Amino acid sequence: MALMQPFLSETSLPKTLLPFSSHNSITTTTKIRTKAVVSVKDLFGCNPTNLGLKRRLVLCSAVADVGEGVSVAESEGQESLEESIIEEEERGQGEAVEYDWREEWYPLYLTKNVPDDAPLGLTVFDRHLVLYKEGAGVFRCYEDKCLHRLAKLSEGQLVDGRLECLYHGWQFEGEGKCVKIPQLPAGAKIPWSACIKSYEVKESQGVIWVWMSEKKPGDPSKLPWFENFARPGFRDVSTTHELPYDHSILLENLMDPAHVPISHDRTDWTAKREDAQPLKFNVTERTARGFFGEWGREKDKTMPFVLRFDAPCVLQNNSEIVDKNGEKHYFSGLFLCRPAGQGKSMLIVRFGNTRRSPLAKVFPEWYFHQNASKVFEQDMGFLSSQNEVLLKEKLPTSKLYINLKSSDTWVTEYRKWMDKVGHGMPYHFGHSTISLPKQPAVVEHAPAGLPAGLSASMPAKGGIGTMHAPNPANRYFRHVIHCKECSSVVKAFQTWKNVFSAVALVSAAFAILVSGRQWKTLLLVSATLCLGGVYACSTAIAMNTTNFIRKHRRL
Questions:
Q1: pLDDT at res. 271
Q2: Is the separation of the CB atoms in 201 and 141 below 8 Å?
Q3: Using CA atoms, how far apart are residues 61 and 74, in angstroms rounded to an integer?
Q4: Mutual angle of helices 365-393 and 484-513, in 10-degree steps
Q5: Where is the Rieske domain positioned along the sequence (predicted)?
Q6: d(CA 35, CA 90)
Q7: Are strands 290-297 and 157-159 parallel, antiparallel or unpaired?
Q8: Interatomic CA distance for residues 369 and 236, integer angstroms
Q9: What is the C-alpha to C-alpha distance for residues 342 and 123, in angstroms, rounded to an integer?
């Protein structure tokens, strides 16, 4: 992502591995690689004449620029495209390991953004959950279903610290105990069958995590702990984004520094398409719970950046810089990618460091939030279509992707990890194995109300009141509603816009009525300045709620 571009700085960095918590230690496995010449037939499992159009195009266009008018085939010491493609499995690497997706901690929400006065509906894979804060400030998480008539509890309300179903007023607290049923006769006992399923939650380093297993208690050794975020002076900018594609595709995208200069060209003053170049990767550790390694630009001959993936959905990209005074500074890009159902994911992004950028002192935090939204919108078309193709083709990624050693190593590592653990997931798309979803994706309907009813009757959902319609392609829905700061900023700018509009109107009216030239001038200047304020507020609101559209796509 373009947000990862600071890790591609021209600054010369020492190659240093960051310390991680002891309970996340990784055991190195012995790597046995069979070196062989990879032919097209070996690579794709068929003769070139049987390849589809895409593969035949690869065969006839395997020429890449390496200098002034020199092709790969003509340059000594350069690999051909076939040799540049990542080789097949290392021996024993793809063997299945014990894994159960339920026995993991999943990132639910940023603590600071959990509403104080309302329940919050969330999902992990196909499990619907409701998260809320009790009167004493304790976080509770239940199955999002009232057992009376199956109404969603996330559509309910909080009454005296209890969660109330708004259909018939049943109330719940604690570990899912039903404590009130208004329709029961006086003196009647509430049956245990009215109680709802509860899930264990923990708050750690500003994030709410949920343990999905109903049979085993939460394993504290699996609860992530991030060393850099506990360092003195470490500050971060954290955002939440709901995205319309699978979490595995999201993780792929976040592991892919090669796309940043192209897809995010000039987005944050650092990504430039002319900087697209070969990268170098070194996988240093692999386990049943993920992998770990270094990477950098091939031309720099160093690998100063450290990437780490941990099950089930945690990705870190870290680096260290020693300044001219010999002081060491730590930088982290943390990506918590929760699977939110088929074709859906929720991402918590946290970028932080111990040396604050001067830009962070000049620009308000909401500016960085909207810039992050812009970055995800730049990739949204690619990733949504990738999601559709994977479901349509029903093939593992090794049959669909052309992964290069100089750009796609982390993507291949991730898909190979899914080969090992996919049998313990609801569905997966691995490097050489797949398991398709057993049930079709659930399409959420518009909320209740006149605007939603009219929108639902339109060809495209969200035709009326689009800013507030539950459309995953809508920035307001994907980010603003999940961010207290951006929500308050939008409200504040809307209020100031209304004030400026009113003052401008009144000033213009008095300018017409008064006879003195000085008063007319003063009032007209005042009206002009207020109209400028209206424009500025409208621009700020649009920055927070309007999707980015590439220039060649605009009308």
A1: 82
A2: yes
A3: 14
A4: 120
A5: 105-210
A6: 10
A7: unpaired
A8: 12
A9: 11
> How many whole angstroms separate alpha carbon 270 and alpha carbon 349?
19
pLDDT, residue 219, reads 95
Nearest to 205 by CA among 98, 116, 299, 111: 111
In this structure, the chain runs to a length of 555
Q: Is 268 helix (H, G, I), strand (E, B) or coil?
A: coil
What is the reported pTM? 0.82
Cis peptide before 470 (omega within 30 of 0): no
How high is the pLDDT of residue 19?
35
Residue 96 has what pLDDT?
86
d(CA 209, CA 223): 8
Q: What are phi and psi of 465, to 5 degrees?
A: 65, 45
Helix (H, G, I), strand (E, B) or coil at 246: coil
| CA 261/CA 276 separation, integer angstroms | 6
Residue 86 reports pLDDT greater than 60: yes
Tell me how far apart the alpha carbons of residues 150 and 167 are, in angstroms, rounded to a whole number.
Answer: 10
434: confidence class by pLDDT, cuts 50, 70, 90: very high
- Beta bridge mates, 293: 283, 307
Helix (H) or strand (E) holding 507: helix 484-513
- Nearest residue to 111 via CA among 141, 134, 139, 144: 139
- In DSSP terms, which residues pair with 131 in a beta bridge? 120, 141
Among residues 373, 381, 378, 384, the alpha carbon closest in space to that of 479 is found at: 373
pLDDT digit string, tens, across residues 376-404: 988 888 888 888 898 899 999 999 999 99
Average pLDDT score over residue span 2-20 = 39
Question: Both tokens of residue 397?
Answer: 């990624």
Q: In sequence order, which residues have a C-beta less than 8 Å from that of residue 448 and are 6 or more positions away? A: none
Phi then psi for residue 352, to 5 deg, are: -150, 165
Sign of CA dihedral 402, 404, 405, 411: negative
Residue with tokens 């996340």: 24
Q: Please give the pLDDT value at position 423.
A: 94
pLDDT band at 360 (very low <50, low <70, confident <90, very high): confident
Alpha helices in 311-449 (DSSP H): 358-362, 365-393, 409-421
Residue 73, both tokens: 């085939």
